[in-house]
Write a structure and sequence with these properties.
Distance between the termini: 33 Å
Number of helices: 8
CATH architecture: Alpha-Beta Complex
Strand order of the largest sheet: 1-4-5-6-7-8
Largest sheet: 6 strands, mixed
Radius of gyration: 18 Å
CATH class: Alpha Beta
Number of domains: 1
Shape: globular
Helix content: 40-55%
Length: about 220
């Protein structure tokens, strides 16, 4: 029997932050690309191509243009998305690492693993010994970093290395193109400005801590009656 998934962050914690969050103007320029991805996925055209053919453009359009991560060419001395071969697990390389890269010692924050649109992500597929999620957990352990993004381009999930694999945030690419609320949540949660801020820490840590506090408060109130 399949285990039901649950969100990584408490919904009320996210709602409180979203009330104060406004999409940056740069998002408007990324919408046409997002709509193209939604059409290619929903029409089945993306299923006819493999990850090597699609993933570089997906990372550029969604992680670069929409979410604001920069590579070594477009940025200055420090950039926030590396597609270099940083860590290897069972002969496979992490597709990208989000963090602080450049002249100083890199600061790894999120390991990113990308698969084709037909990949179920949580079970081995295409002759592989492990699922995409298992594979990226291994990358996070070896980098090391605490956060994990796994994407089939059809869907994108955020995991925490210290949590179980049934706990994650999930975003459907087709829905992102038509649901303004979901897009706002996606950009808030995964946007470079908050994951790799110019100063301070990645906001995942704060959101996770607040979610644990809210969860305990709800449990305490329940048992108080």
């Amino acid at each position: 029997m399949a285990v039901e998934s649950k969100p990584l962050f408490h919904p009320e914690v996210i709602r409180q932050h979203l009330r104060l969050f406004t999409l940056p103007d740069s998002v408007a320029a990324a919408i046409p690309k997002l709509e193209q991805w939604a059409e290619k996925i929903s029409s089945g055209a993306a299923d006819k191509l493999n990850e090597k053919q699609l993933l570089p453009d997906f990372l550029t359009d969604i992680f670069g243009t929409l979410l604001g991560y920069t590579g070594p060419v477009s940025a200055g001395d420090t950039y926030t998305m590396s597609r270099e071969n940083l860590v290897q697990v069972d002969g496979q390389w992490a597709d990208a690492v989000l963090g602080y890269h450049g002249n100083d010692k890199p600061g790894f924050i999120v390991a990113v693993e990308g698969k084709g649109t037909r990949d179920p992500l949580e079970i081995p597929f295409g002759g592989r010994k492990m699922s995409a999620v298992d594979q990226c957990y291994r990358y996070a352990i070896n980098l090391p970093c605490d956060w994990i993004i796994v994407t089939s381009m059809r869907e994108t999930r955020l995991y925490h290395k210290g949590s179980n694999q049934q706990t994650y945030e999930r975003f459907d690419t087709v829905r992102l193109a038509s649901d303004a609320g979901l897009l706002k949540r996606f950009v808030f949660l995964l946007g470079a400005a908050r994951v790799v801020p110019d100063s301070g820490e990645c906001h995942f840590k704060e959101l996770f801590s607040k979610s644990e506090t809210v969860g305990r408060e709800i449990t305490n109130k329940f048992y108080a009656f």
